[in-house]
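STRUCTURE:
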């Protein structure tokens, strides 16, 4: 699985950012939590592609569900 998240201590003090940008991944979650649509986030952060934003959401989902066992 391709990662869309970069952690580099020399970029934004190691805060997880979208690969190739200085946009913290947390911004995406903050926008969605505030009920803004994905399109609004992409409009405000044009250096983040739709593919990268969806990829980060997929990575988060995979991370949360990887150890889940059926009930």
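SEQUENCE:
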């Amino acid at each position: 699985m391709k990662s869309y998240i970069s952690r580099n201590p020399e970029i934004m003090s190691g805060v997880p950012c979208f690969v190739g940008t200085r946009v913290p991944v947390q911004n995406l979650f903050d926008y969605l939590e505030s009920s803004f649509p994905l399109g609004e986030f992409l409009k405000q952060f044009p250096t983040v592609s739709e593919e990268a934003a969806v990829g980060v959401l997929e990575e988060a989902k995979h991370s949360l569900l990887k150890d889940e066992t059926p009930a």
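REMARK: The longest helix spans residues 50-65.
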